[in-house]
Amino acid sequence: MDINAKQEILAEYMNDVSTVFERIVSNQAHKSDYKLLEEYYRLAGISQQYIDNLYSSCGFDNSLDFFQQRLKPSNKQTGNVRQAISKLKGTTEAILEAIQYKLVRLNNFS
Questions:
Q1: Residues contacting 92, CB < 8 A, separation 6+
Q2: CA distance 48 to 19
Q3: Could you tell me if 10 and 99 are in contact, meaning their C-beta atoms sit under 8 angstroms apart?
Q4: Rounded Cα distance, 65 and 61, in Å
Q5: Is the model more confident about 104 or about 66?
Q6: 55 near 66, Cβ under 8 Å?
């Protein structure tokens, strides 16, 4: 695969991760977006155990529970939504930074 193709794939991945994450943060996501974000995390090398711990440490069983709780009024939610979003943000930013670094390296070799 040539460098330009790799750059396009990485840029598209970054855009997809950012778009799905923003939908989740703004509470405009579909149930499938939560699973898609998990899939993007796994593609980036994040373990399922890390993902599961992210949600459980915030009081959620999993991403589906997080999604379902966000549909409820805030006084009826179990778990800490803000904390989960903060952890998702940190994980997403770390992935995007790592990909950006790869893009810079590819640009230096092209």
A1: 17, 18, 21, 37
A2: 21
A3: yes
A4: 6
A5: 66
A6: yes
Q: Could you tell me the pLDDT band of residue 1, with boundaries at 50, 70 and 90? A: low
37 contacts 24 by C-beta, under 8 angstroms = yes
- Residue 52, number of CB atoms within 10 A of its CB: 15
Q: How far apart are alpha carbons 36 and 82 in whole angstroms? A: 20
> pTM for this structure?
0.88
- The pair of three-digit structure tokens given for residue 42, joined into one six-digit string: 């796994």
Q: Are 52 and 65 in contact (CB under 8 A)?
A: no
Residues in the chain: 110
